[in-house]
Every structure is written in structure tokens, then in C-alpha cells.
Design a protein that fits this description.
By secondary structure, the chain is mainly beta. Helices cover 7% and strands 53% of the residues. The chain has a single domain, classed as Calycin beta-barrel core domain (Lipocalin, Beta Barrel), CATH 2.40.128.20. The protein has 3 helices and 12 strands. The structure holds protoporphyrin IX containing FE (HEM). Protoporphyrin IX containing FE is lined by residues 40, 42-44, 53, 81, 90-91, 110, 112, 114, 116, 118, 150, 154, 156, 159, 175, 177, 179, 190, 192.
Amino acid sequence: MGDFPKDIFTESADVDPDTLANLGPLRRLAGTWRGEKGQDINPKADGPERRVFMETIDMQPIDPQANGPQLLYGLRYHVHINTPEEAITFHDQVGYWLWEPATGLVMQTVAIPRGQVALASGLAAPNAGSLVLNAVRGATDSGICSTPFLEHAFRTDAYRIEVTFHPDGSWSYVTSTTLVVRGQAEPFDHRDENRLTRIAEPRRNPLALSPVAPMIIATPT
Ligand code: HEM
């Protein structure tokens, strides 16, 4: 367990309503992104299948979030992926990227419509050039939960994401999802990677846009 304060209810008074100014290493992920040359390796009955994909990612700042004294700033994201061959969605994912300035904790929540969620975490400096986050099945702090069919047929033991920020403002990711596929002797490394270029700047978070923001965060006298 971490070194947590005794008072678990009192929230920090030092909250900046402007999330974009407090995202640490996640600032470079804010906005809307497009990548045309994604690469996927997924499990199929007769062996690994490789696919090329096109991806749009929208990441918008949310209002500062307090868990009692723990203060988080973050982005709400939506990943949508298609392939050149088919109109149907190839992969869809929603969640949050979160940053705790006090500790350098970075978290990504992952929800995919297979009936699967994960919370991945790692540590980073505010000016980090890369991020590495991990989730492991069975962990209660950075874990993975799956529907019983996936647990039976495609047990997901681990998830890892590595993000690299590039000097031109683009960024790339590599994800590795370790699947234990029923009937196969070795775990399967379901890998995805892409490089994203910004197509739109982020919008400001609701509190930063609100004309009453200074009143909401003012300390009572
Ligand atoms: C760019 C990201 C991703 C793409 C494009 C992608 C794509 C795919 C595809 C095409 C399949 C095979 C589907 C089928 O045969 O029905 C698959 C399987 C699977 N993926 Fe992903 N995936 C991505 C990321 C992830 C992530 C992040 C997770 C979980 C953390 C995940 C979990 C799974 C699981 C459990 C399966 C096996 C289920 C099955 O084949 O029915 N995937 N993925």
C-alpha cells in the first residue's frame, strides 16, 4: 500500500480549473488524432492474422477529479478503428488517461466492447518523452476483467502500452495484450501499433470554460 494521508476525505485546496495546463506528460496526447498506417496482429483459428488499419483518437480534457486528497487531471478518450477492406468497426475503445501531479502516477482505463475492462498504470516525469503502463490479470490496482467467455477462450493475462512522443508533435504507441488462447500451447502476443498526427486542437474542459469557475473553486471566507 502507498503512503496515504490519514484524512481520506479532505480535498486539496490547490485545484486549477484549467486541466490543459496541468496534464504533465499527458498534455501531448490532448486533441484529435489520425493515423493511417496502424498494424495489428490478432489471433485466428489457423494462426496469427496481420491487418493494416486506420485510426481516429479523440482525447479531451475533463474537469479536475478529486478522490478525497488525491487530485487527478485527465483526458477522456475514444479510439475508433477501421480497415481499408471493411466498413464495420475493427476496434473501438473508450476510457480515461489520468495524471496525478503529486506522485507522477499515470493511468489509462481501457474499456472495449468485448466485455472487457482494464486499468493500466505507470510512473512518469511531467516532461517524459515516453510512457510505459501495465495491467496484469488478478491485480486489484492495475488489473483486467473479462466476460466469462473471454476468460474461457481468450484469457487476457496482461496488457502493456508504450507511448513515444516525437519532436514534430506526433506520437506513437505499441500495445501488447497477452492472450492465453484455448487449445494453443503458447500465449499469444496480440500487438497493435500506430503513429498519430494531430488533426484538431483540444477543447478546454467544462470548468475552465465556465464563467462561474472562480466562484466554484474560491475558498469560503
Ligand atoms: C489497436 C487496437 C486493437 C485492435 C485493432 C484489435 C483488433 C482485434 C481483432 C481484429 C481481433 C480478432 C477478432 C475476432 O477474430 O473476432 C482481436 C481479438 C482480441 N482482442 Fe483486440 N484489438 C486491439 C486492442 C486490444 C486491446 C487493448 C485488448 C485488451 C486489453 C484486446 C483484446 C482482445 C481479445 C481478448 C481478443 C480475443 C477475442 C476474440 O478473438 O474473439 N484487443 N482484436
